[in-house]
Amino acid sequence: MAANRVFVIGVGMTKFEKPGSRDWDYPDMARESGTKALEDAGIAYDLVEQAYVGYVYGESTSGQRAVYELGLTGIPVVNVNNNCSTGSTALWLAAEAIRGGKDCTLALGFEKMQKGSLTSTYDDREQPMLKHILALAELHEFAMPAAPWMFGAAGREHAEKYGTTPEQFAKVGHKNHKHSVNNPYAQFQQEYTLDEILAAPMIYEPLTKLQCSPTSDGSGAAILAGEDFVNRHGLSGQAVEITGQAMATDFGSTFDDNSAMKLVGYDMTLSAVRQVYDQSGLSPSDVDVIELHDCFSANELITYEALGLCGEGEAGKLIDAGDTTYGGRWVVNPSGGLISKGHPLGATGLAQCAELTWQLRGQADKRQVDGAKVALQHNIGLGGAAVVTAYQPAER
What we know:
By secondary structure, the protein is α/β, with parallel strands linked by helices. It has helices at 26-41, 62-67, 86-99, 130-137, 146-162, 166-180, 194-199, 227-232, 252-256, 260-263, 266-280, 297-306, 315-320, 337-341, 345-361; strands at residues 6-13, 50-54, 77-80, 104-111, 202-204, 207-208, 218-225, 240-248, 289-291, 331-332, 375-381, 385-393. A ten-stranded mixed β-sheet has the order 3-2-4-7-1-8-12-11-9-10. Strands 5-6 form a two-stranded antiparallel sheet. α2 (62-67) links the parallel β2 (50-54) and β3 (77-80). The protein is globular.
């Protein structure tokens, strides 16, 4: 039997902010983003049949405590933790429920983070990333913090193989900071010159501070529904259909191919996006707007190739040509991306969903991509999981 069609009918998010800069807790964040999503959908919470709630740093059943701010209706609430792809994993699970016959589900993500670099919570057991770290340490001497070391090493590998320059990596940061100026939800809304990006403190070559995503507090939410629900409630004019969606985890090649790029998820992304193109019948040339996981500029650049926007080794030329910003072939990260919008881990994937929903509805204000009809989302978490989603307006 064919799976039921899945539609995003409502989205909402908080402003992403520096940890500790606002007097709020995760239930406050969830109430704000969830209420906005319900209001956007024009429905009451008691129509939601299941909720999937994502966060990385938090206690067990924090998901229940979060959605209890929206109502106490006895529905199943599933807590989700998939590292930096947690938000899109919650989205994937909520969509799977619709495909399986549910009428209406909620995907919600939040994060209340500590200042500074990411740290582990438990030190009395093996860290889930240890296998990846040990494999990468065979290729590049270990450095702290671990995340920029891993993605910086992937950038170095790309540079060694294809001649990618520091300026090309910096242009990713330059572009995304420029885009964020028009996003009121972004943690940072400041534009920098390319020279300022390059001159910022070096975190791990080639990554300067202005090419790295910050820690952030914030939340995002999406209401999903099946076709019958959309029709019964007259929502086809605002609904955005998920026309392709896939999650992939690590392959043998992640560890066997002696590649820093593969250790940070290149093959996961490649597998997921190929499934999405197959499901949707779309190709890269059909896509207008993309939100992708630019935790570091190096990851955005290598992901261009994994998504099929250009050939292997051609990502530097793509950014040089201006093909990933307004006036180019695609607009990538019109929100400002993780680098400038911020990266509250559990919320990131749902903020990407919100941005793309607004883009396809023509509601993105100064960030609006003219004539956007097809959107692509990419969210990755090391350890690992990559989720890729294609969206198109319900009325098309």
